[in-house]
Amino acid sequence: RAKATPATAVAFYDPSMDELVRERKNLANELRLAFDRDELDIYFQVQKSVATGEVRGYEALVRWHHPERGNVSPAEFIPIAEEYGLILQLGEWVLREACARAAKWEPAYKVAVNVSPMQFAHADLPRMVLETLVETGLAANRLELELTESTIFSDKERSLHMLRQIKGMGVTIALDDFGTGYSSLDTLRTFPFDKIKLDKSFVDQVESSEQTAAMVRAVLALGRSLKIPVLAEDIENAEQLSMLSIEGCDEVQGFLLGRPLPIDRIVSTGQLTLLPEAERAPVEQRRR
Ligand code: C2E
Ligand code: MG
Ligand code: MG
Ligand code: MG
């Protein structure tokens, strides 16, 4: 009895906790309005083939330009969107927007879209993906969905069923942040991925730690024997690029190759060509 120490009492009533919750709630309310206020945007980051240097596609990364707070990071607002029931709306917005834009690119380029755990758990994702492809006119084989281990872990059977439905349309699936989950090998064995995205933490230390380099080699060998291409994320310097290229990494992405940028800025650098107006899918007509 009376075990509660002053310390726990303080922790329980800690006003800074209240503040934190209030802050998150505020952010959630503002995010709810951000759609109509046109504060959300998508940046794209280039993904290149190591062997040929060709652009394979672009990853869509959501951005929130808040009028007072400036740019709020998705690492901050995606968890809030999940907590306050906004993630389905956000995920649907990103998917539709990313596909609509990619439908205007030269068809050689794919678009990769991140799918959050809750989006995968609750939404009728296969139906939403199909509807989005039909409405935007994007060919299914130009869309890649990026999932993390935590996204698919909860219910194996259901996840497998959903992934098969999505892959059945021709959409490809990448395993994002590979190596950070706690059962990466099991995940790889169970689900039919088309690409492995080697996590930042491995790439970061690939030049400095012999142990990390050995693990990276092992993942690349694994990818080769499973016939799944490996993309290394977050490449920041030439040493990392050269090491990964020597070891046979298939694709690369990172600040060294290109920062995430608005699509018109990428177009103006000449790294992306848009289709002439006349060759674009007549989306509006189809919707009426
Ligand atoms: P991610 O999917 O692993 O995306 C890669 C992140 O690494 C991006 O951060 C990108 O800007 C950053 N990055 C790329 N190259 C480099 C580099 O060379 N060095 C460093 N230090 N960072 C680099 P961003 O855009 O802040 O996104 C963070 C995470 O938020 C993403 O990680 C993804 O999990 C999530 N996210 C972003 N956009 C969306 C979205 O539309 N939907 C969902 N569900 N999640 C998203
Ligand atoms: Mg990603
Ligand atoms: Mg990643
Ligand atoms: Mg990451």
Write up what this structure looks like.
With 288 residues, this protein is α/β, with parallel strands linked by helices. The chain is built from 14 helices and nine strands. The chain has an eight-stranded mixed beta barrel with strand order 1-2-4-5-6-7-8-9. Helix 6 (125-136) runs parallel beside helix 8 (156-168). The radius of gyration is 21 Å and the shape is globular. The mean pLDDT is 91. Bound molecules: ligand C2E and magnesium ion (3 copies). Residues 59, 114, 146, 176 line the site of one magnesium ion.
Give a nutshell description of this structure.
48% of the residues lie in helices and 18% in strands.
Considering the chains and any ligands shown, give keywords for the structure.
binds magnesium ion, 14 helices, 9 strands, alpha/beta, single chain, globular, 18% strand, 288 residues, binds ligand C2E, eight-stranded mixed β-barrel
* N to C succession of SSEs: HHEEEHHEHHEHHEHEHHEHEHH
State mean pLDDT (0 to 100 scale).
Answer: 91
Can you count the beta strands?
A: 9
Helix-and-strand structural type: alpha/beta
Could you tell me which ligands this complex binds, including any ions or cofactors? ligand C2E, magnesium ion
Strand content: 15-25%
**Unreliable spans:** none
- Please give the share of residues in helix: 40-55%
Q: Mind summarizing the main beta sheet?
A: 8 strands, mixed, barrel
Shape: globular
Span of the ends, CA to CA:
70 Å
SS element count, helices: 14
Order of the strands making up the biggest sheet = 1-2-4-5-6-7-8-9
Estimated radius of gyration: 21 Å
Organism: Hyphomonas polymorpha PS728
Protein name: Signaling protein N terminal repeat/GGDEF/EAL domain-containing protein
Domain EAL: 24-274
